[in-house]
């Protein structure tokens, strides 16, 4: 009976190891990563009450991240940010030293629209509010950001300030 228990336990562990290995290997494929990226965007869309979408996502563990067709709307439905491509090369191993080291960020065909209404509220406030940690959290070590190179290709920035009559800046 003890032999049977050991045999069943070994089979169970073997199957568990095979399933975990399959999961880890499947996460290396773009379609699987894109699926999870779309699910994360769908979750954030619900949390923020705004449309967020990602067409494609590719993550090379510990070295790079690529996003394709990233779109973020404001809660009223207007476009806040769109980028055809966003690529970042980084060294995740340095996170253990509380340092995020980004070698290069490339942003392609991007549009950013910042709007301030007559009361002084901007269309970016809902994102800042969502991602700002609450004050009742315990104090954590600060994370140092080390950014080496930013490459911008075909970028436009539209700034509209309704507090001043006729104020519109398009860069």
Describe the structure using short key phrases.
6-stranded mixed sheet; 30% helix; 42% strand; elongated
Order of helices and strands: HHEEEEHEE
**What is the structural class?**
alpha+beta
Number of helices: 3
3D shape: elongated
Order the strands across the largest sheet as they lie in space: 1-2-3-4-5-6
Strand content: 35-45%
Arithmetic mean pLDDT: 86
Radius of gyration: 22 Å
Report the strand count.
6
pLDDT below 50 for ≥5 consecutive residues: which ranges? none
Helix content: 25-40%
Span between termini:
77 Å
Largest beta-sheet characterization: 6 strands, mixed
Q: Would you spell out the secondary-structure blueprint of this structure?
A:
Elements: H1 2-26, H2 30-48, E1 52-60, E2 64-73, E3 79-91, E4 99-116, H3 125-131, E5 144-161, E6 167-170
Structure summary:
By secondary structure, this protein is α+β, with helices and mostly antiparallel strands.
What does this structure look like?
The chain has 171 residues and is of the alpha+beta class. The chain is 30% helix and 42% strand. The protein is built from 3 helices and 6 strands; from the N terminus they run ααββββαββ. It has a 6-stranded mixed sheet with strand order 1-2-3-4-5-6. β3 and β4 form a beta hairpin. It starts with a helix and ends with a strand.
């Amino acid at each position: 009976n003890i032999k049977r228990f050991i045999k069943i336990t070994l089979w169970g562990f073997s199957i568990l190891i095979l399933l975990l290995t399959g999961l880890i290997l499947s996460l290396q494929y773009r379609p699987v990563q894109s699926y999870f990226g779309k699910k994360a965007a769908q979750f954030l869309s619900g949390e923020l009450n705004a449309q967020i979408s990602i067409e494609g996502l590719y993550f090379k563990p510990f070295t790079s991240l690529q996003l394709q067709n990233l779109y973020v709307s404001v809660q009223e439905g207007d476009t806040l940010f769109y980028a055809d491509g966003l690529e970042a090369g980084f060294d995740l191993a340095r996170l253990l030293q509380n340092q995020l080291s980004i070698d290069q960020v490339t942003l392609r065909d991007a549009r950013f629209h910042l709007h301030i209404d007559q009361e002084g509220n901007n269309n970016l406030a809902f994102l800042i509010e969502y991602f700002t940690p609450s004050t009742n959290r315990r104090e954590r070590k600060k994370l140092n950001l080390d950014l080496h190179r930013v490459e911008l290709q075909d970028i436009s920035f539209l700034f509209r300030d309704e507090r001043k009559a006729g104020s519109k800046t398009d860069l």
